[in-house]
Amino acid sequence: MSWYAGTFYCGHEGYVNIIGPASNREKMKEYKFSGLCPACCKAELVRSRNEKNTAARKAASRMELPPLEGTRKQVVWAETLRVEALTRLQTFIDTPGNIHLIILRLNYEALTPLELTEENLPPMLQEIVQYLIHEKVKAAYWINNRFNRELCNLEQLIPEYLEWCKWYRPEQTVSESDFIRSDSVLSPKNPQFPGIVEIKGNDEEISAFYEKNDRFREIIRQMDYEWNGRCWFRRLTPYRGSFRDRAAELGNVLLKNGFTVSITDKEAREGAVNGDFSPEHKRWITKSKKGLFFFIPLSSSIPREVVLNLKKIPTAAYHSGGIFLEPSHYEELEDFAEMYGFRFDREAGELLHAYRDTLQQVPHVSPAAGQPSEEINNLHKILESSGAILDDLVDND
Which domain of life is it from (predicted)? Predict the structure, then answer.
């Protein structure tokens, strides 16, 4: 190890540490001092990174990309990565000959359930671009996939997109021939936005159709709706309530914000006007899918103080985006649920009652003292009767 003094390309003097064969050190010294000094190199890196981030923000604004979710540093970095990835993907799609190669590759290895052709693949690829733009709004996704070349060769994206369509895309969409019934329309006294938000669905899903609007997008995202390429939707579960309540809630919020809405369901329409609906409860205690454990999924809507108090319960352990707890401390969990407004779902309630009933039915016993062994009793009798010292214990001195 040797330190060499010299002047860097930027004009600053400094030292460099060079190791290795002595015959090569002069060449390494010349090479290292031909660049910037560490301070200037760091400043140049920061300047270059800021330029890329600024350019990415401008490009995201021109492309009308939705804002990313995450910490400030994550968002700044992910904005650059997203623009670069989308640009690279679009360039790959537009390059002649790549479509044919994708078809040969995916069809040959049966990586998709569809037979891809040069007629149906190009529109699908453009929808995949929209899928990435509107669905991948977590900054962590773009950061974690910054080295993932699958964003260009599409071997992973196409199956993922098709699986997403299978489960989340509604089978029917509004066509140009579908007319909104006049008796289903509700308008605020002072409408602030043009057009009509159409709310429709069933007991399994609720959908909202509307033109591109920043305020509408802000509201719909705050209510945990997702974009599937054609409309905003939510899958309805026992935790989220009925279609009637969710449609009335969404209609009520939109009317308050100056949107005109259409709700075909009469009860939901009346509930939107009167505010007569059951608010969605978002704090649930469930049963884990594997094993007899309670599971509390965590989200950004749960305050940090609540999470910290939950972790104080014995056996609480964080994993897979939530807290797992053994049923042995169900009493503390019940107190926590009552204090912070959590509810047990059906399976969690059954687990709690089963564990409690088991403890109540267990017989309570008073164990008797054990009898000493025969050898111990005999030794005790010998020592008490003779008073003699055993040979092993005699001091020969």
Answer: Bacteria
Tell me if 92 is assigned to some domain: yes
Q: Are residues 72 and 164 in the same domain?
A: yes
In sequence order, what DSSP letters do the residues of 45-61 get, joined into one string? HHHHHHHHHHHHHHHHH
The region of weakest confidence among 44-48, 110-114, 262-266 is 110-114
Helix residue ranges per DSSP H, 362-394: 374-386
At 116 the pLDDT is 67
Residue 389 phi/psi, 5° resolution? -95, 130
Residue 253 pLDDT grade (very low, low, confident, very high; cuts 50, 70, 90):
very high
Nearest to 145 by CA among 132, 134, 158: 132
Radius of gyration of the chain (CA): 34
Q: What is the pLDDT of residue 170?
A: 43
Please give the average per-residue pLDDT across 179-207, as a whole number: 88
Q: Looking at the 3D structure of the chain, how many domains does it have?
A: 4
Phi, psi of 138 (to 5 degrees): -85, 125
* Mean pLDDT score, 19-33: 80
Q: Is 300 helix (H, G, I), strand (E, B) or coil?
A: coil
Pairing outcome for strands 294-297 and 226-227 = unpaired
Is residue 129, in this structure, part of any structural domain at all? yes
- Residue 199 host element (H or E): strand 196-201
Looking at the structure, do residues 295 and 208 belong to the same domain, yes or no?
no
Q: Which residue has the tokens 């609540």?
A: 306
Residue 214 counted as domain residue: yes
Using a pLDDT cut of 90, give the percent of the chain over it. Answer: 18
Distance of CA 314 to the CA centre of its chain: 26
Whole-angstrom Cα distance, residue 288 to residue 293?
5
